[in-house]
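Risk register update: the risk of archive-format incompatibility is retired. Evidence:
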Amino acid sequence: MLPCLNKKLFGVDCMGCGMQRAALLVFKGEFVEAFYMYPAIYTLILLFGFIVLNIFFKFKHSNKVIAALAILTVLTIITSYIIKIIN
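Archived output:
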């Protein structure tokens, strides 16, 4: 796993801390643990999965779906980061 430079240099988690470990947990089949590690992992998987599908199969309103998934992902990342900082 790559170390977080923000955490090493400043001692504070970044908004992406836990993403690598959560992805590894998803691949291992430990879905609940992955969510607790990094809640935005599932919205990221949906976003990237839809983008890949859209490359092969052109959907009618793909730009709106991608924008909505991107906004949902960013909101999930920010919310989980704020909760992590507060606790």
